[in-house]
Structure formats: structure tokens, C-alpha cells
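Troubleshooting log. The previous structure file for this entry was overwritten by mistake, so regenerating from the original sequence record. Sequence copied from the archived sheet and checked twice against the printout by T.R.
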Amino acid sequence: MLDQESTPVAYINGTAEDCTAPKTLRLIEYWRARMPSDGGLPSWRDFDLMDLYDIAAALAVKDVIDGGNDYINRFWGTSLTVALGFEGTGKLVSTYEPVSMRNAVSKRYGNVVRNRETSMARGYISTMPGREFLTFELVHLPLRGKSDEVEHIISAYHFGLALPEGFG
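Regenerated output below.
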């Protein structure tokens, strides 16, 4: 077990505008290209994961349950399974372990749903014991479903990101 002083804790939060990693930027570009010309959010029905085959292993798609009371993974890329150590397809966020990860991602997804805004994070995975030194950048993007509400969240994860000197 790592002691608190040796565990990197640096973390940056922001929006899609703050992303720099190739995989997150690729998803953002695709998402923006599907935005309605009259404004608003892109719709899930306008997405085709085959268009994103080059980064599919780094993607996750969540369905929003009951306005954000929970989320279920519709799609979970293989690089997420390798990096995070669990297969997430079909898994409810409310069942994630450890609880620290569950709480962190639930809070982030809730903000995406309520505010209808993008979310990004970059740093070290601090919510999962044994993965504290894994660097990442992620982006979560809201998608409309059949209604105008956020009914899905599509995310891209770039693991092993080289962080700036002195980060953490």
C-alpha cells in the first residue's frame, strides 16, 4: 500500500475545450460534427460507433437511468477493461467498486446530465487502489435520446498520457 505522501494526487478538471489527448480530441471532433445546426446537443441516433473504429477501444457509452439516478454501460471499450481492471459492459455505475470510484464518476456524470455540458479530467487515477500511477485524460460528452434530455453520455479515455514536468 502506498503512503499518502508518495501517491500522486494532481488532477485537472475542465471541459472538452481543455482536452489535448488525441483520443479525446477525436471524439470531440466527431461529437461537434453531429451538433444540430440550430444549436443544442447531438443525438445518440446520429452516432455510429463504426465511424469511431480507430478509437473504439477507448470509448464508453452510458445510458442515463431515471434522470441521472444511475447509469448503465451500453458499450465499454477493451482498453478500459485493461487499464481499469474490470469489464464494464452492462454494469451499473451504482455497483462500481471501490466506492471512491463509484462516487467520483457518479458525481461527474450527474453534472454532465444536469448541466448539459462536457466534462474532462486529466491526471492520475486516484480513486482506484493499485492504479494511482496510471495517467489519463478523459472526456464525457452529453447526448440527447428520444427527448431533448441528456439520455446518454459518450466518453473517450486516453491512458498513459505523458503529463507535464512537475505534474503531481
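The chain has three helices and six strands. Archived copy saved in two places this time.
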